[in-house]
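Task: sequence design from structure.
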């Protein structure tokens, strides 16, 4: 099973940008569909974005479309989430996940990272 470690979180002001990374090890990164989730304080974990193992297909939740970009670098076994025009409501712990199937990964990923905190001040 692949191990995932997120990084890149921090404190930013509204309107600024942040890029998260998720380093994978112990598995064949290039064969996994990947996704980002987030969990705000007192809220349930929610799907943010996903990308197919080929990198060709991407999906986003409506609230981040046009602001966030998911990408992957198989040579580096790393998943990214570039976040622009950040809003206070984007404040959450962000998790990366690995799985098979772009539909299945939204509900039942195979592996989770430990999360990285993103805080957006107004």
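Answer:
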């Amino acid at each position: 099973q692949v191990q995932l470690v997120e990084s890149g979180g921090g404190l930013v002001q509204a309107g600024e940008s942040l890029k998260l990374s998720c380093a994978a090890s112990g598995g064949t990164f290039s064969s996994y569909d990947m996704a980002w989730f987030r969990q705000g304080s007192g809220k349930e974990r929610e799907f943010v974005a996903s990308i197919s193992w080929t990198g060709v297909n991407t999906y986003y939740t409506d609230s981040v479309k046009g602001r966030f970009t998911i990408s992957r670098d198989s040579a580096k076994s790393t998943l990214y989430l570039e976040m622009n025009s950040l809003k206070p409501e984007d404040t959450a712990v962000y998790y990366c996940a690995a799985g098979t199937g772009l539909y299945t990964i939204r509900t039942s990923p195979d592996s989770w990272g430990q999360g990285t905190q993103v805080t957006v001040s107004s």
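Residues 33 and 102 are 6 Å apart (CA to CA).
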